[in-house]
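Assemble and predict.
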Amino acid sequence: MRILPREIESLWTLFTAPAVWAVHFLLCYVGVAVYCAKRDLVTFGFGAVRLGIGAATFVALGLIVFSAWLAWRQWGFGMHDPPHDEPSPQDRRHFQGFATLLLCGLSFVAVIYVGLAAVFISECAR
Amino acid sequence: MRTVGEPLPLAERRAQEERLRAVWDNPSGWRYWTSVNNYQVGLWYASAAFGFMLFAGVLGLLIRIQLAVPGNDFLSANAFNQVFTLHGTVMMFLFAVPIFEAVAIFLLPPMLGARELPFPRLGAFGFWSFLLGGVFVCGSIFFDAAPSSGWFMYPPLATGEEGVGADIWLLGLSFIEIASIAAAVELIVGVLKCRAPGMRINLMPLFAWYLLIVAGMILFAFPPLIAGDILFEMERMFDWPFFDASRGGDPLLWQHLFWIFGHPEVYIIFLPAIALMAMIVPTFAQRPIVGYSWIVLAAVGTGFLSFGLWVHHMFTTGLPQISLAFFSAASESVAIPTGVQIFVFIATMLAGRVTFSVPMLFGSGGIAIFVIGGLTGVMVALAPFDWQAHDTYFVVAHLHYVLIGGMLFPVIAGVYYYYPLIDARRLSQRLGRLAFWLMFVGFNIAFFPMHLTGLRGMPRRVFTYPGDLGWDWLNLISTVGAFLFAIGVLVVVTDVLRPKHGRPRGEVNPWNAGTLEWITEPEENWGVRSIPVIESRYPLWDQETLARDVNEGRFLLPDAEEGRREGLVTSVLDARPIQVQRVGGTSCVTIVSAFSLGAVFVALTFHWWLTALACGVAAFSAIVYWLWTGTAEIPEKPEKYAGLGLTLPLYSSGIVSVGWWAMFITMVGDGTAFASLVFGYFFYWTIHSDFTAGLEGPGLVWPLAALLLFAIAWSLMIAARFCNSRAMTRVMRICLISSFLVTCAGSLAGFWGPWSYNMDPTSHVYPAIVWILVIWVLVHAALGAVMQLYCMARSLAGMLTEEHDMDLHNVVLYWHFMLIAAVTAFAVVGLFPLAH
């Protein structure tokens, strides 16, 4: 049994980390919007929502790190420097890996930005 | 595959050229306008968009004249409202977005080494739709009937607007949005499947990367606005209270839907302009771009993050502060990829030896302006600052800095850079420099003071102001600057339009650029003489004999023996050739379809129901005729020799075909619009303690029956495809007809739910939103049923067979999406009220 997935030949892998950011962002936004609109109907407080956001943030960051590892592998573990502009399948793969890795970095930061909101804001104030 | 063919005898080359020329030739006389060639369509598209820009520019000047002095009565309040609404609307919808589509249609095929985009008739259809919709929207102001509630049409002001202005906005622009989605389909499939062989994704021109991302963004950004338009027009036309708070509606839903579209739209406008810069900068630095992968990061990153920004237009609407904080965070993070692009350009310029010619002047001047706009953007992305600056001239200044610096200047740079591709000669360098300085200085004089008028509290959209508030001299300066800026624009227009007989033609690749589009000869309509094999990001720099070999026909598809327009379909990642695709040629069916469909929208605006119906029937017939005669054609032979030892199929179906991808992409957009309506349903649930307001729902039985019937119809379609692939034609036809009948039954069941419970959509928003979801599914079911009959007819006519099953594959794909919509809609309207 493999723990790590095989390398996938697809353009879609490029979008993994930003997609994780998008899902995390939507979950946080929708979760908070519904909670603040319907808080009379539930028994838990805003603290639980913040914990939920924290948990979601950690999961998202974990997924991004995992995706970054796969990208690093696709990039050949950093053994080859950009610009990856040779007309070969190998350079094409290295380019994909490197671009994916960069996107993982951006998404990682963007997820932290979103998660930080829950650190500083402690109620549904309008 | 060999990479280059043997040279051909001259006589044979000439014969090939004659045949190619005849196939790609444009008709003459009035029939010229039936051309679907990407060069003509792209040029018309760009000219029309520039025409609309000049019109909107004049409106902008009218605004500035009115505001030049306090207490001015140059325009009445009503006229002023119409002028500024139309100024914003036209600039955004008729210039900024379409100009990118125009440039893309014009440039993308030669850049990718393709002869054409995969669906040239769709491109032409998009252009004619755009032109008609644009003239309709612009023309309204001459009848004192233009929309007057601001370009984002906030209800309740806009829902209550007198006259047809708001309807013209909603229907005219919906029509244009459909054209944009058509362009997005065309561009995504073009970039992914129609690149020259060997152009792997790591060698793709950056312009293509940007367009791929932008087209993807259109697919998710425009449908929410279409959904919003539907709700809005239902309220205006039939009094369904989606935005009427007294009957459970909420104006904020419009703001959400509008800005889910509106913010990504800013990047949809900005990215293609930056894409032009990504082509221009390496040329003038005479070296490859530094940080190709970083640009890809920036394009993809911006594409995603831009969908997390919409609420920053709504910071003052009273949402929970933590929601604001999420959007503020995303707004700050989008500055990262935006900055990366600027640094990449600077690095490329530093690493090369830059020649500061006119395109570079406009490009770098634009970026300087854009950076200022970006910095004020970072300021207004902070909620507390935005509370102060919201709806003041500070925001007006910010958005003009971003849009004119990030879009107009780079586009003018593009005009100067790419003009030789149109006319084989350059525009005047002297006039170009003059225009640049007039525009650059004029722009800053006009818009910089607006930051100050804004900070001094001047609200946007006021038609006049008293003289003692300290706004008067700032406004006067702005007006002077605006006219200076306009003179600069006029210089550009003069330069483009003036006769240039005195200047010599024949400048191919005058800037010594490295990318493939510079291989094309402006005199010829065939795009590329033969489709080259690409081995570099800058093939004209690195593949020394490329231009000669292409023009000697030594690559792929150098001939048109069968008298058909042909292009190459290649694989997504490595651009391996997989098919020779025959594309549609000159036809007036595109114009007839666009105009009859446009007439439906125009007739609806004025509530001419019978005319709308008649035009609808005409549009439907034209489109069916188009599909029947122009798509899924069975070739006279299964394969064709393409050159370089390659024999490729002429027909394909399923996931490898471009048609399947077009359907998939269209349905993703369609699904997004549907998701926006579902979002509306749950939005109403969140804002009310009892969102049904005690009213009857559609019950449980009928929605679930409809759900079940649609699932059966879908399974029958799967069975039909299976039987067809096993050559069981009769069983396939039985499946198709049964599926059609079950679809009709499912539609009746779906309709009967809300109908039998007397749900009155004008009484409250709950029945209205239920009806909208149900109607959405019913309309799609009707389309699905038409497709089933179409497949049946194709099968009977012998055009849908075991091997030639593209139609059936595409219809089954449609039905996958249909099933998702039916299950979601009926589960939501049937089950959710119970959970509640």
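Chain A has a mean pLDDT of 91.
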